[in-house]
Design a protein that fits this description.
338 residues; alpha/beta; Rossmann fold; 2 domains; 5-stranded parallel beta sheet; 4-stranded parallel beta sheet; 12 helices; 13 strands; globular; Fe2+-enterobactin ABC transporter substrate-binding protein; ABC_transptr_periplasmic_BD
Length: 338
């Protein structure tokens, strides 16, 4: 199913960013050869297996049939490879989440897979996890959905893998989850199909060589995360033909150094978002108008040329949200003003 990004409203981005600006972009990987596919199929049938994760390694005796995901930001990646997610943590219903608290980009897939809400992020509930009788548990290293403080309890219930979605693009994260669930073939299929489509969209866009871009989560009057060249959002925008500008660290207000965003002070934004075009994540047309009318940003190249574009459902990047971004560039992107 395809979605028009202009129809999706945005929500509080600051809170969303602390939950995690997801891992997702064009992977740059080649389409798997037949031998690779056969190898993947063989690997899928091999159990037990030991998976390397952020804690070291974990041995999974049998292919999981009931996955409990405490890291909501990775639920879309699991669903995209048809991994058997029994339950996931949820967020507050609103513009970016359905009545169950599922993110809108994968809520239909979750409903089709009969995924159950586990508990609301921030309200850890060990009994709810036990009641799901999981044979695999997923935990994130950081973000509002991290429950690392309870890792020792969880690993006593079932094999528990620890992932870091803040420093990976979605193909890398998807491959890690595929290895833990035995869904390697499904992962390679969606990655290769996405890469092929991204290349087609890039060709259609024909962005002039050397065109620079900034990626901003705009919060007027306060810190605004600006995308780093190593972040998943930047990798996707780069795959479409832009050259992302690296924001200076000197304006970073976040004591935790991240690979995806610099949490730029409001005062430093005018010296950080200097691309020829600016893409505003988790934004609406009203957000873009506010950015364009902000007097402190009046001299930015993208403001002068009015090359400021809102990307609605885009702060958590997985297969689903990245596909929606491709939808936007393929169908709704108005092209660059000269």
């Amino acid at each position: 199913m395809r979605f028009n990004l202009r129809t999706i409203a945005s929500t509080s981005v600051a809170a969303a960013l602390m939950l995690g600006l997801g891992a997702c972009t064009a992977s740059g990987s080649a389409t798997p050869e037949t031998s690779d596919t056969q190898s993947s199929a063989t690997q899928q049938s091999q159990w037990p297996r030991t998976i390397t994760d952020e804690k070291g390694s974990v041995t999974i005796e049998e292919q999981p049939k009931r996955i409990v995901n405490t890291a909501m930001s990775t639920t879309g990646s699991l669903l995209a490879i048809d991994a058997p997610v029994a339950a996931t943590t949820v967020t507050t219903p609103g513009p970016e989440a359905d009545s169950n608290g599922f993110f809108t980009q994968w809520s239909e897939a979750a409903a089709a897979a009969n995924v159950q809400p586990l508990y609301k992020i921030g309200n850890f509930d060990l009994e709810s996890i036990i009641a799901q009788d999981p044979d695999l548990i997923v935990v994130s290293t950081s973000g509002a959905d991290s429950v690392m403080d309870h890792y020792d309890q969880l690993k006593e219930i079932a094999p528990t893998i620890v992932v870091n979605y803040s420093n990976k693009d979605w193909p890398e994260l998807t491959r890690q989850l595929a290895a833990a669930t035995g869904h390697e073939a499904e992962a390679e299929k969606i990655i290769s199909e996405f890469d092929e489509r991204a290349a087609q969209v890039k060709e259609k866009l024909a962005i002039p060589s050397g065109t620079t871009a900034s990626i901003v989560s705009y919060n007027k009057g306060s810190a605004s995360p600006v995308g780093k060249t190593t972040g998943p959002h930047s990798r996707l925008i780069t795959a479409l033909g832009f050259e992302v500008v690296e924001p200076p660290e000197e304006y970073n207000t976040n004591p935790q150094k991240r690979d995806d965003f610099v949490f730029t002070s409001y005062e430093g934004l005018a010296k950080s978002a200097t691309g020829d075009a600016t893409f505003l994540i988790a934004a609406t047309e009203d957000t873009a108008k506010s950015f364009l009318s902000d007097p402190t940003l009046a001299n930015l190249p993208s403001v002068k040329s009015k090359n400021v574009f809102p990307l609605a459902n885009s702060f958590r990047l997985d297969y689903y949200s990245s596909s929606q971004i491709l939808d936007y560039f393929e169908n709704d992107f108005p092209s660059l003003a000269k």
